[in-house]
Amino acid sequence: DAQDLWQKDKNHFIHPFTDFSLFHEKGCDLITDSDGIYVEDVHGNRFIDGIAGLWCVNVGHGRAEIGQAMAEQATRMAYFSTFNNLSNAPATELAAKLAELAPAHLNHVFFSCGGSTANDATIRLVHYYFNRLGKPTKKRILSRTNAYHGTTYMAASLTGIASNNWQFDTLDLVTHLSEANCYRRPEGMSEAEYCDHLVDELEQTIERLGADNIAAFIAEPIMGAGGVLVAPQGYHSRVQAICRANEILFIADEVVTGFGRLGHFFASEAVFDTQPDIINVAKGLSSGYAPLGATLISDDLYAVLSTPQGPGGVLSTGFTYSGHPVSCAAALKNIEIIEREGICENVLEVGPYLESQLKTLASHETVGDIRGSHFMMAIENVANKTTKALLPVEARVGDRVAAEAQKRGLIIRPVGHLNIISPPLIWTRQVVDDVVAILDEAFAATTRSLKA
Ligand code: PLP
């Protein structure tokens, strides 16, 4: 029963990213059921899912056909190794399907278990690539403040969110550049000048560290957990051009932006006019129905990685679950649904409506900025709209807004002073209207409670 489950959880489950002061006080909220855009808790309360689980349930909940595909694969052949040239049909089919969907030059796929392991594997492949080219000093990776790339030690080191890493060591392989934060850009700078400023910083950093010591630049096309930050126009393509000129690989972490969230299977080329050497995906790849990550590699890189080295020359990296048949079967069915139901088209149609309706919340006292693109949005809460000063951390404003929304039947994600909205990609205009009405009340209630 509910109380028994709650107690077992409190006694035994260490939750990821737990604030123990809240956990000891409240324990967990048990989500037990789901259907389409809804999830339900153990007490039978139903909520609109405003976060697609965790930026991942792109096709929505309760898709029986994905469950069936997984069950069929699990009963036929749940697992066998993909090491040493062994393979399985779903992994092979999925690799070919990803090559078909991806930008034309990305035709080779390395599977992992999720986003962190995709990024981790990527850095190993990048180092392997430069070692094979006889350029072993090209090791350092450029990332950005407030980037989120995961929590294995390498992925956490790429991550630039200070509060994530304050109790951990990080690997001294990464240099963090400034985030591209248009809302908090230096006073008096136009967006175009801000872009120049960020590009200058990159050029100066390359000069300081030496291009011979830099292997790659990694970025999310829109920074996600770091605050849904949309870079100034032209930023990504200018960065890529500089990387190219310095033989620095350009890696796009599309763990969130991939599989439809911005209206395309891959946002890098379609939205940001870049041709990354490597694209990483996870989350929406299987819509979260099974753990899976993938690293898509360009033909040029593959040519170097795959040059035979003779006996003993093995590309010795990979996971037991690389190309897991059940996860790959889930991903294949998920992709079939996205294509068959025109889910990217839905995002292109409803996404701008979501953006415009969320912007009607700007009049609330705490709402400083409403930003993002399509089904990847955030609201930044502030104490003062003119100075953009933040409320004190103890006010827990993001938590307050999320709690007020949840009371009214909507789950959104609090991240510090922000609230993130990253729904399943099947929201309609009607759902958007219902959600914005709830948020309107939630922000009003938050303002009242902050004054109480
Ligand atoms: N990269 C990005 C952009 C992410 O948002 C995340 C997770 O939120 C990750 C990587 C890590 O993925 P995972 O939690 O599956 O390891």
Automatic annotation (TrEMBL):
InterPro entries in the cross-refs: Aminotrans_3, Aminotrans_3_PPA_site, PyrdxlP-dep_Trfase, PyrdxlP-dep_Trfase_major, PyrdxlP-dep_Trfase_small
Cofactor(s) needed by this chain: pyridoxal 5'-phosphate
GO molecular function: transaminase activity
Keywords, in A-Z order: Aminotransferase, Pyridoxal phosphate, Transferase
PANTHER family: AMINOTRANSFERASE, AMINOTRANSFERASE CLASS-III
Similarity comment: family membership: Belongs to the class-III pyridoxal-phosphate-dependent aminotransferase family.
Protein name: Aminotransferase
Organismal lineage: Bacteria, Pseudomonadati, Pseudomonadota, Gammaproteobacteria, Oceanospirillales
